[in-house]
Amino acid sequence: MRSRSRNTKYEIFTRRLARRSASGGGSVSEGGSLGEGGRNTKPSGFTMIELLIVVSVIAFMAAIIFAVFQQTSKAHDSKRKSQLAQLKTVLEDYYNDNGCYPPQSALDCEDPNGLRPYISRVPCDPKGISYIYEVDPGYGQAESSCPRWFRIYTNFENLSDLDIAKTGCNKGCGPPSLNYPYTYGVSSDNIGLENDNCTPRYYPSSGGTGCHDDATQYNVCRSGEKVCYCTIEQCLGQN
Fold it and tell me: Most confidently modeled of 30-34, 160-164, 206-210, 211-215?
């Protein structure tokens, strides 16, 4: 009698285990364990291969974004070069007609008509701001009623552009009082860009007696005018 009872209990247990195995809830697979309710549980988290895939995708997307950013920066800088070259020509034409360069307000791109009829519209930097326009007698001083020289400054986005060094702005250009904050610029032919390597200064023959401390004075470079240059090569290049 007892043997039969034990057999009956064993048969019931066997049938229950078989039903669980058939439903996928009672077997114990390799790499897992039988959890609550007879369910098979596996270790959580990423495998090494999954992590490598995720890292590769992130690196690929970052490379694409960086390439797009570089191309956009180069396009902006190319536009800056073109616009400053155009402005230099326009300002020289203005000087030839008027005997003076235009006032600082003329390059305010919020008033695009400031240089008509020499140019239909004053260009803005690609970031939508006006270019830095400096005229005689210099930054922070009262503007001359008849400017005799000009400088125009801007900042490149691509700091590896070779034209930065060609203009002498590899260590910065602009007013010394602002610590040379710009990376590119153009100027009138009778003066150069201010930078931390050399600061050429222009003085009319009727006024001014000295040059910047790190420049050399050459009085014979331009007839009727006194000009300071950093090297004799720069001086001779203006003849």
Answer: 160-164
Q: Beta partners for 135?
A: 150
pLDDT in tens, 148-190: 999 999 999 999 999 999 898 988 999 878 888 999 999 998 8
Q: Which residue type is seen at 94?
A: Y
The number of C-alpha atoms within 13 Å of 124 and in the hemisphere containing its C-beta is 9
Which has the closest alpha carbon to 186: 58, 92, 63? Answer: 92
pTM of the entire predicted model? 0.60
- Rounded Cα distance between 119 and 121, Å, is 6
Ramachandran bin of 157, using left for φ above 0, alpha for ψ from -120 to 50, beta for the remaining angles: alpha
Structure-block tokens of residue 92: 């020289």
Strand order in the sheet with 216-218: 202-204, 225-229, 216-218
46 by DSSP, 3-state: which?
A: coil
Tokens read off for 66: 């960086």
Q: For the chain, give every domain's residue range.
A: 68-189, 198-239
For CA atoms 197, 202, 205, 211, give the dihedral sign.
negative
232 to 67, 131, 204: CA distances (angstroms): 43, 30, 19
Q: What are the angstrom distances between the C-alpha of 70 and each of 37, 157, 158?
A: 57, 9, 7
The span from the CA of 54 to the CA of 125, in Å, is 39
